[in-house]
Structure formats: structure tokens, C-alpha cells
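Q: Joint fold for the lines below.
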Amino acid sequence: MFVESAINPGRAVPSPFAVQPDSLHALFSKLPAENLSAGKILFLEGDAATSVFEVLEGSLRIFRILGDGRRVITGFLNAGDILGLSFRSHYIYTAEAITPVTVRRLSRKVFEAEVANSAELRPVVFNQMSDEMAAAQDQMVLLSTKNAEERLCSFLLKELQRALKAGAVQPLVHLAMTRLDIADYLGLTIETVSRTMTKLSSKGVISTSGRHSVKVLKRGLLAQLAGDGDECEDGWRPAVAHGERLRH
Amino acid sequence: MFVESAINPGRAVPSPFAVQPDSLHALFSKLPAENLSAGKILFLEGDAATSVFEVLEGSLRIFRILGDGRRVITGFLNAGDILGLSFRSHYIYTAEAITPVTVRRLSRKVFEAEVANSAELRPVVFNQMSDEMAAAQDQMVLLSTKNAEERLCSFLLKELQRALKAGAVQPLVHLAMTRLDIADYLGLTIETVSRTMTKLSSKGVISTSGRHSVKVLKRGLLAQLAGDGDECEDGWRPAVAHGERLRH
DNA sequence: CGCCCCCTTGATGAGATTCAACTCCAGTGG
DNA sequence: CCACTGGAGTTGAATCTCATCAAGGGGGCG
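A: Joint structure:
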């Protein structure tokens, strides 16, 4: 059950269900499902954060809009994900449906009361928040240091892992979002995303069919091109430049 | 006490003490202080996450090292900050002293037990984690969309706000970290940071004296150059492209 | 005082953005 | 059934910002 707790592996996995899959899920199970059609807003940045959501079906993008109209997508959500934990009084980003979406809504008050009353639930919520934090850190690493190809490969690799974890047998990724979404998520332009996709296709790493379907032909190479293949894996430690460990 | 909860303002503030300043602090108050000299490591990425820390004095950098040796600084910590909340079983980054540092160490087990037993403490811990998440999101926005000047101005502005909040009367910022630290934090090179500093000086926005002292001469212009001056402030809302709100 | 490291400044080049044209596809209505 | 239309994606050429490579200052500490 705690296989996800080894050195790094669970970090990039956005699913909240790596541990104790059911206890959070159960909170929502008796609530009515709500439907959003594609393009509809679930909540806006700046709104009072009154609800926590569970995504039952479909995909959403979460983003912030800057003063000059630029959009930064900070994440995508899919079936099984929980949305709305890491907020104080107001939502710090907008959540919008990419595809038709089904969610369950739990009032924040009830949610907090349930968490307060359940010693089982607390570590699950805590782990969920820690995973979100870890994913944000990964994204910061991607945005600070990776070039266009590395970013796109990282993205495709993560989507592939998600698909496989969700039960896919073929290395086939369905990208619900548009190229512009991917660009805004990776800190690139739509043209650069498109060009890089083309380059990966011509290298034989992937093959695209239609706008939303990508088959991964060379997973190893994809991982290598993603740039963090050997990052701190299996016991590797950064060289300590001029410091010793703190005795304690 | 809840002034920090208005639309956005508290978001970028890393201090955990915006609300209920003392309850977290109190947890650590009876513990012995530990000292680290500059350059010493408090903990390494990948270490078992056994402790939570309170910084009493000094500054630290938290970072990850990539396979090829590149370093990504994901944050800086100062007196009053809490370190080590957002972890699962292992630390996901390294924490290293920039200046001589004094910390108090609380075992994770004890910390979790205390939190479990105190209904007062839980929302404080929760808010602290939410603030960390918000700061991470801000950093993602900075790294995705801002150019070198905007990044540096954002950074200086944040440091200025921290200094003022800490009781500074003059608009004087002390940068404990090196240019390389700033570069690794902002996703730039040391040369670009240096050039941009020079440019801001010659524009009369700031004036530097020595390597670590920066006086902010034109705070308004600095905020404007930071690029998010009018981002969603006072009720501004992003135009909803093709969506309506979900009725609920 | 002198050395070393940190920082600054300059010249060049690579990679991504920008601007622009064109293709492809889905949906619509005649 | 097919032409029309508009959004999404692709491709090309020019531009620009920032990284890289290289050399020179300056401050702090022995």
C-alpha cells in the first residue's frame, strides 16, 4: 500500500488515490453529480472558495489570467482527481471544463468538519496536498530549466503514465486539451508546440493521428528526451558543494 | 486579523504568521536551538522526512539538483518561516544555509500528534500549506510568462514587501543570497541577473550599494515593471471566453 | 597586501517568439 | 450532397531575447 513512498516515484503522479484510495472518495459518494459542458467555468479565480470537488468524468484546465491577457495553465484534472483543497478563503485560479465534465461538490464547511472528525482522513488530505505541492515543484523545474523538446516530452510522458495507470494497454495518449492549452501549460507558444510535435513525429518517437491522439513509439527515447531520466534516481545524491550535514 | 483574506493580497506572502501567529510558533518554543554555519545542509533531497523546522534566524535556500548538475532553487526561507510541512515520507528538496542559521527541530511524529490533538492548530497548518501552494503557483506564473526584467522586479518587490512587513522603515532590501542563487531561483543566468540589475539601476528604479544591499527608489515603477501590477486587482475578473458559470 | 571568488561587462550565437500564410477538419446550412 | 465558414493546427521567415563564451573589475578575508 505504501509502494508510492519510495524515494521519488509518487511525486509526479497527480492522482490522489495512491494511498487510501477510498476514504476521500467516500466523502463524495452520496452527493449528487453535477454536469458541465465543455468550456464552462466551474469556479473563477477570486471567488470565495466555498466548495471542494471530485471529478467523476471529463477533463478540466486550471489557470490564471494575467493583466495583459496572458493565460497560465497550472494544471489539468481528470476523473478521480480532487479539486479545491489548497485554498484559503478564495480560489487562486479558475477551473474550466475542457470536455463535458461531471463533478461532485462538497461544501468546504462540511469537508472541514469531516476532516476534523476523522483521524483517518487527515493523513489522506495531507498526502493529497503534499502531492499537489510536489507536482508544482516539478513544474517549476520544468519551466526553469527545460527547453521546448524536453518540456513536451515530459508532458507526453506524464500523460502516458497516466493513461497506463488508468488501465490503457497500448501506449496511446488521448490529449483532451488543445495545442494552445499545452502551450500555456508548458510556457511555450502554440507554434513551438506544433513544431516540436512534428519533430518528434519525424524522429519516430511518436505518431499522431488526428488532433488529439498520440501513439508513443519509443518510450525509452521519449523519457531520455524528457531530460530528467537519471535525475536523482536510485540513490543518486547531489554532490555537496561546500557543506557538511548538520550533526543532530 | 483576517485582512490577508481579501481577494488576492496575501498570496505571495510566505510568512506563515498572517493568521494565528503564535500557535505554530508555540509548538517549537521549548525546543533547543540548533545552529548551522553558512553553506551547511539542513537536509538533503531524498532523505527520510523526519523533522519539521522553524527558522529562528538567518536565511536558507531550498533547491533540487538535476541529473546534469543544474540547480533549481524553489524558494528562500527566513526567520519565522516553517520548513518541512509539505512532504510525504521523504524530503523532495535540499535545504541549505545561506547565512549562519538558527533553527528549532520538531520530530515529525510529535508534530503530527500535536496537530491531531489540537483543533486550533489544524487550520494554521492548513493555511501554511495553502500559502506554500500559492507561492508555488506564483512562481510558475513568473517562470512561464515573465521576461528577465519582470522576473527580477517581481523578486525585488517581494523582498521589499518582506522587509517592510518585518519592520523596515526605509525601502532597503538586504539580499542575503548571491547573484547565482537569484539566477537559479528566477530561471535565468547570473549574467542576465547582473545585466538586469545594472539596467534597473541606470533607470533609477533601484540603487545598489555593495553586493547585498538594494535601495528601491521608485516602488511604483518597480511594481509596474514586475508585470502583474494590475493582475486581477480590486475586483477585476478575466473575461469569460466561451463559458458561463455553472448553475448550482 | 594579495588572492580568490563574486560580480560585471562585452561579443556572439542558439532557440523561441512573432508575424504571416496556408492547410485541415468539423459543423452548418443551402 | 457539397460548398461555405471558422476554429485549430501546421509551416515558413524574420526578429529578439537570453544563454554562452570570454575577459576584466572589485570586495572581503586570510
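Q: Anything notable?
A: The longest helix of chain B spans residues 121-145. Residues 147-148, 188-189, 191-192, 195, 210-211 of chain B lie near DNA strand D (CB under 10 Å from a C1').
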